[in-house]
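debug: dumping io for the single-chain case to check the tokenizer round-trip. Nothing else runs in this session.
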Amino acid sequence: MTTATEAPLTRTASYTVLHTGYTLSTGPGVAATVSYVTDGDRHVIFDPGMVPGRDSILGPLAELGLTADDITDVVLSHHHPDNIINVGLFGSARVHDHKAVYEGDQWTDRDAEGYELTPSLRLIHTPGHSLEDVTLLAGTAEGVVAFAGDLWWRPNGPLVDPVSPDLDVLRASRLRVLGLADVIVPGHGAAFGAKGDVPV
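debug: decoded output
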């Protein structure tokens, strides 16, 4: 187990949820929560997964004055298709997962734990929904926002993730994120506060 990494050092990032996802079960009718995060010259898409159509991602991005080619980085929380199926929209971006950075035809191995895209954007390992989960911590003026993928599917959990390989590991990762974040953006629902009655 790696040493727990602290929250981002600075608070200069900002974010917009491009598409709020949903799910009632493991399917059908699943959509990902897709987010845009920016800090300095980094323009990041988190979990470009299943949505009703490409415009569900590209339309809100255009409202921000951006195209797919403006995106510098894509972060994938894990490799389930419902969270990554639209990664190809961002062909110019570096792609980050739990073990490497992918760019063009280059694959650079690195440990995601503590990896900084900027001093305000940091990855941490948060296994539990799968063994490869990562969370993007964004230091913003309002606090730390955790883009947690399917660590939580939506604000109410589920408390027991039916696809988790290890519920104890899931709970430990949830508690870690709750200790670092002020806001959590789940994999298939709206953002919610990290304090109060959060399922662990």
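debug: round-trip ok. Residues 14-193 form a domain with the Metallo-beta-lactamase; Chain A fold (CATH 3.60.15.10).
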